[in-house]
Amino acid sequence: MLIGKVLNDTQVIFFGLIWLRMVSFVFSSAFLGSPTVTPPIKILFSVVLAFIVFPFAKPVSTDSQSLNDFLILLAGREVLVGLILGLLTRFFFFALSMAGELISLSIGLGSAQVYNPFIGQSGQVIEQFFSLAGMVVFLALNGHHLFITALVQSFDVIPFANLSLQVGGLAEVSQKFQEIFVIMVKMASPVIATVFVVNLAMAIMGRAVPQLNVLVTSFPVTILIGLTVFIISTPLMTMEMNILMEHTSTQLFKLMRSL
Which helix (H) or strand (E) holds 122? Predict the structure, then answer.
């Protein structure tokens, strides 16, 4: 709809504000904001989204004078809204990374570091597995469609060209996100509990048989039993990933309604 149509100064400002929310969301989101996606692709994708949303987004104020006077504040507000929505999408992968890190440390694989492209830093092997499995679940549940839909709908719930921003809902949403950490502990609990029992048994054997070198013997036993329990409990962890995905999307839409 923009092709062949000359935009006036006010419409150019509106398009710029929409693009700022889009680009800040893309750079801070979990899937699109991955370091494996190059910045030119992120910028191009945000421009495409801005062109799609521009004909339908309704601004709060159309006064060109007020727009020019508060342009910096309006731009900062759109960047802040995009960053908040984008960072919320990362909680899904943050919880998976923390669960994988707990499991890696408990079974003795904490020193095995590999690069994790989803968080842009090195992590444990199990953490990498959780990130890849989480990405599969994320795509299987159309999580990328859900987050993009939420971004587009945010212009109906949080209109642009408006200086007001309600941040009271952030406290409530942050309290609700403690449930994500509970899910993370549930995902890692089978392996952690098993390793605890194994370490307790090895300690009793060390006291009963002093000639046994518990420190050397416990490493392969802990890794073997820990990985076995991890493989057996993988389907249960996948179910927890589904619950985690639903909880993240629920909190995302709830936050939009509170801003």
Answer: strand 121-124
